[in-house]
Each structure stands twice: as structure tokens, then as C-alpha cells.
Write a structure and sequence with these properties.
Radius of gyration: 14 Å
Main location: cytoplasm
Protein name: Nucleoside diphosphate kinase
Helix content: 25-40%
Bound molecules: guanosine-5'-triphosphate, magnesium ion
Strand order of the largest sheet: 2-3-1-4
Subunit structure: Homotetramer.
Order of helices and strands: EHHEHHEHHEH
Number of strands: 4
Function: Major role in the synthesis of nucleoside triphosphates other than ATP. The ATP gamma phosphate is transferred to the NDP beta phosphate via a ping-pong mechanism, using a phosphorylated active-site intermediate.
Family: Belongs to the NDK family.
CATH architecture: 2-Layer Sandwich
Strand content: 15-25%
Distance between the termini: 15 Å
Structural class: alpha+beta
Largest sheet: 4 strands, antiparallel
């Protein structure tokens, strides 16, 4: 099975959507949460996490937004969770996301799109090391 890193972004925490979003993940058959933490991200962590986007026009506002309040970081284990949480989330732009997906149901702004989930096995390994270095 797989393991993925999920971040409930500051908008999700501010809007009281943490329970709703975690509930959707939790209800998937065979998936489980193996770590969970409320945390305010510092610049260094965000630079590591979003390094691939450095230099792009949306990078600075993205990092500022991600540091604007606490996030909920969680580790999810289970069958095809990497692809699975991305599917639950919907596409990056919430307006393009179908109703029934997290972004489609609750989002309208590209930057404030509620949730991050690792996009590949390689990203998951890299991101899990940044957020939960002690996890075995
Ligand atoms: P993450 O899970 O947060 O990594 O989202 P993603 O994988 O769906 O998108 P991507 O990694 O390409 O971009 C990271 C984040 O930058 C997105 O979630 C958006 O918040 C923001 N972002 C990406 N593309 C754009 C864009 O074209 N405009 C703006 N304003 N923000 C963007
Ligand atoms: Mg991404």
C-alpha cells in the first residue's frame, strides 16, 4: 500500500472545514491516518515544500497564504492513497473541479484551494520527510 502527505490549508482551518475534509478521507475503505498535527508553517518549510514553483508568478503569494495561519498536516496510509486523495480533492482550480470533490464543493479561488496532497510516489517520499521526519 501507499502513504501520502496531506495538508489542510489555512483557508480550510479558518472556515471550519477540517472535520468535513478529514471525514471524507477517513471514510474511504481501508485508509487510515497515521499522523496528524495542527502547525503553522515557517518560510523554510514552505520553500522546501513548494520549491518546484519558485520563480513562478504565484509562488510568493502562495507561500504568504500558506503561512497565514495554521494548517493541519496528516499522513494517510492505504490502497492507492496518492492517486486517491488527489481524486477526492479535484483539480487545482476549484471552479474546474466537479461537485462532489473537496475543491469543487468548497472552493472558488485557485490559491485558496483547501487541500494539498502529494502528486506522486516520489513527491510523497520527499514531502513526508519534510513534514514528518521521525515517522518510520
Ligand atoms: P498543491 O497540492 O497545493 O501542490 O496543489 P496542486 O498540486 O493541485 O497544484 P500545484 O502544485 O501545481 O500548485 C501549488 C499551488 O499553487 C496550488 O494549489 C495553488 O494554490 C497555487 N497555484 C498553482 N497554479 C496557480 C496559478 O496558476 N495561479 C495561482 N494564483 N495559484 C496557483
Ligand atoms: Mg502540487
Amino acid at each position: 500500500t501507499q502513504r501520502t502527505l496531506v495538508l489542510l490549508k489555512p483557508d480550510a482551518v479558518r472556515r471550519g472545514l477540517v472535520g468535513e475534509i478529514i471525514g471524507r478521507i477517513e471514510r474511504k475503505a481501508g485508509w487510515s491516518i497515521s499522523a496528524l498535527e495542527l502547525r503553522t508553517l515557517d518560510q523554510e518549510t514552505l520553500e522546501q515544500h513548494y520549491g518546484e514553483h519558485k520563480g513562478k508568478p504565484f509562488y510568493e503569494p502562495l507561500v504568504e497564504f500558506m503561512a497565514s495561519g495554521p494548517v493541519v498536516a496528516l499522513v494517510v496510509d492505504g490502497e492507492r492513497v496518492i492517486e486517491g486523495v488527489r481524486a477526492l480533492s479535484g483539480p487545482t482550480d476549484p471552479i474546474a473541479a466537479a461537485p462532489g470533490s473537496i475543491r469543487g464543493d468548497f472552493g472558488s479561488i485557485v490559491r485558496e484551494n483547501l487541500i494539498h496532497a502529494s502528486d506522486s510516489e516520489e513527491s510523497a517520499i520527499r514531502e513526508l520527510k519534510i513534514f514528518f521526519p521521525g515517522l518510520s
